[in-house]
Write a structure and sequence with these properties.
The chain is mainly β. The protein has one domain: Immunoglobulin-like, CATH 2.60.40.10. The chain has one helix and nine strands; from the N terminus they run αβββββββββ. The strands form two sheets. Strands 2, 4, 5, 6, 8 and 9 form a six-stranded mixed beta sheet that branches. The chain has a three-stranded antiparallel beta sheet with strand order 1-3-7, with no helix packed on it.
Length: 127
Amino acid sequence: MKTLRSLCCLLPLLVASRALALVGPQALTVGEGFENPLGFHDPSPAFSWKLPEGVKKQTAYQLIAKSAKGDCDSGWVVSDQSVLVTYRGPTLGSRDRVEWQVRFRNESGQESEWSRPATFELGILSS
């Protein structure tokens, strides 16, 4: 019975700590503002994202991109850049599909959750 009371006391704390989790980046785009494009034209894309409301500053980001050619993990990059971040993964070719996500650290060093996955698929790049 004592254990049950202890768990009941901890439950609100666990719920509250989850509510305090820093929401991940939003509005993920590739290139000049394309959301999940098909037939994308650039085999060296650039990624952009928006910080959630209330975040004053990004101090670092981590971006992962997965494709049939291989996975790319930037690791933590100390940077406030969140617009047109250059892709640094394996060379992409026609019809390659990439899924990517990003997270950031805020001005207090707190890590956000991962963004929802975004995708793009390249078109036919040469004839």
